[in-house]
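Hi C.,

You asked whether I'd gotten around to modeling the 183-residue construct. I have! Everything is below, sequence then structure, no commentary in between.
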Amino acid sequence: MKPLLRALLQLLPALFLTACHAPGGTATPPQPVAHVDLQRYQGLWYEVASIPNRFQKQCAGNTTAEYKLRKDGQVEVINRCRTQPGSWDEARGVARIVASDSNARLEVSFVDLFGWQLFWGDYWVLELAADYSHVIVGTPDRRYGWILSRTPTLPTATRQALDQQLRAQGYDPDSFVDTPQGP
């Protein structure tokens, strides 16, 4: 429980800033995909790479995200990772759909206070393979980003294509750091 509480406390400021931040200037936000079938999206995803952030700084590798549809239409989120000492850290949250016409714009909260979810952060699906084998997730301000896959690694050609998609969406692919996946 102690690592989970620590992770939630670290996550609070980041989610608050993400939820309150409006993109500045005339920068156009990235464009979410046209449609996400949440039935197909649910399940286990491996983090292939991400933009380093405070709420994952304890993670040394083997980072995953698991999504499960709930009866109320929201999505249960379970993020796990191996820490440097070799223990496991887990954060549980919930995602709600912001754009029901596409299901590609969601908000996620990992802070539950007496049944009330606090500090929602953007979760936009920016690129999604037709077979749901990999995805790019990001935020409108491009401060956060993740490349997820159904497998622990991606072929080099696929990763290069995703880097091109990141550029097209206004991200710097070099800001994404590979996530170690292993035993």
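If it helps when you're writing up: Residues 2-168 form a domain with the Lipocalin fold (CATH 2.40.128.20).

Thanks,
B.
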